[in-house]
Design goal:
This protein is an all-alpha fold. Among the domains are: 45-104 and 212-335, no CATH class; 150-163 and 340-456, Cyclin A, domain 1, CATH 1.10.472. Helix content is 57%, strand content 1%. Strands 1-2 form a two-stranded antiparallel ribbon. The longest helix has 24 residues, at 46-69. It is globular, with a radius of gyration of 23 Å. Residues 196-406 form the Rab-GAP TBC domain.
Length: 458
Amino acid sequence: MCNTLEEAIKSAGLETEIRNIIFHLVRSKLKPEEKPSQININDPLAYLKRAGVQWDRRVRKSLNAMCSELKMASQGQPRVATDRDELMTKWDELSNYTIDLANYRPVYAPKDILDVLLSLKGPSKAVENTEFVQVPKWEFSHISLPVKNLFELRNHYNDLLRTESYGGSTDMNLQCQRVLESKHAPLCQHLLRKGNTPAPYRGALWSYVLGSHINNFDIDHWNRLKATVLSTDHIVDKLVFKDIQLTASNDDQYFVFEDVLYQVLLCFSRDTEIAQMIQFEHYPIKGKNYEAPPSGVVPFHGICMFAAPFCYLFDSPINLYFTFRAFYIRYCHRLTTINTHPQGIVSICLLFEKLLQTHEPQLWSHFRELQIQPIRVVFKWLMRAFSGHLPPDQLLVLWDLILGFDSLEILSIFAIIILSFRKESLMQVNSLDNIEAILADLSSIQVLPLIQLALSRD
């Protein structure tokens, strides 16, 4: 029976599908969540877990306060018929949908979460020869999260240093065609590691790696989300419109995608499956719990910039939505919440700081003398994974590498090499405004050669 079953699976074309399912199950395998009553109060990261829960509560409280101020129900209310009809009529051109946003503001921005991170105080440690040790208050070095050194990063990203990996465009096109014909997710992921993915194949490769190919159930799910948006008026609708108008609509690279971004982010806000799939920090703290949007994600300033790059990959809003959703759940959520995940924003900031101290000591000392926290200069890059800061063609190369190596550590490496690349200019200025002016324009930056340079340096 074993042999005939195996033959039947192969003949029915199910072998690859089963392999892909196992690939995604292994990738999404989570450690058993600690129940609040089981958390060890002596855990050296307990303060960080507590800060994550407090931050989430603070964000939800701000959203609920905005609801009270504007006399809106925190969980939404039935949409009036005229509004529903207008929304339905203009669904494919939502930029023409009339809505008053004067009283709405983003719940939080990258600067707010950075201020919280910089204010964290870890448990005090006994250090030998403390009279000779001077630790600035604004360093992340007190956080006991494990981060890699450059040698370990070089091993992890070793494929990027193999010159034979980079063939001509014709060879790469043929490789993409063969891999996509195999429909094998691990092969698609391996191909993205080369960093030179031809644009016509990128969307299909990302879909296999993220397991976001749509089926009839997904189409039904999208239609249900759309119906919920049309029938229920929620405060997050206004926040979505506000965010897109403040960011993507004013960006030369993304303003043409305004209509589809409205569709995708409105449906995203109603998707209760996201709240079930996202891993939030757990810690027992007292106080009132506040309602969250159906998706569990409170819109923040710049959230639409995580979805905008996908507009270059997909013509269909449905394909775009499910690939963006999978990418957000696996990566973006870790960058926008305070968490102890080794790929979370705290770990990424800590890695950046340690790499800067170790491999650019002159720059580190320069920032110290100016009393400017280096992380303040790059945090907006890290939290947005460089979206809105790099040209789309280069951003997609960077995100190829995130997917290919299943790691956000590439963000810290890339931030470091940009500072190194502009070190001479940075050393000549002495204010935060001038530093930010030097780093404002990344339009000439080429992702792949710079990252290869960063990994190959002594």
